[in-house]
Write a structure and sequence with these properties.
With about 90 residues, the protein is mainly beta. The protein is built from no helices and seven strands.
Length: about 90
């Protein structure tokens, strides 16, 4: 997930199979479904070469679905990013 806001909503408010303590620090403005290859996924974000993006806040996070019995959903730590800052 990639978003422009950070709501901090508990994942359990969206689904009953969420693990305790999992929050959504990234708003779901852009969501992409990815399947792992050899247990890993790779993702890249192309940012246009424009000064209008400098200083824009972005929030990134992965959600994981474990299909073992019982099925659960958990979330990774969120990343707070600022375009043009490092």
């Amino acid at each position: 997930m990639l978003g422009f806001g950070s709501p901090g909503t508990p994942l359990s408010s969206f689904t009953p199979i969420a693990l305790p303590g999992c929050d959504l620090p990234a708003s779901p403005d852009s969501v992409e479904f990815m399947l792992p290859t050899a247990g890993a996924v790779a993702w890249q974000l192309a940012i246009p070469n424009s000064t209008s993006w400098v200083g824009a806040p972005l929030f990134h996070q992965f959600l994981q679905l474990d299909t073992a019995s019982p099925s659960t959903i958990s979330s990774s730590n969120g990343l707070a990013l600022v375009v043009g800052a490092f």
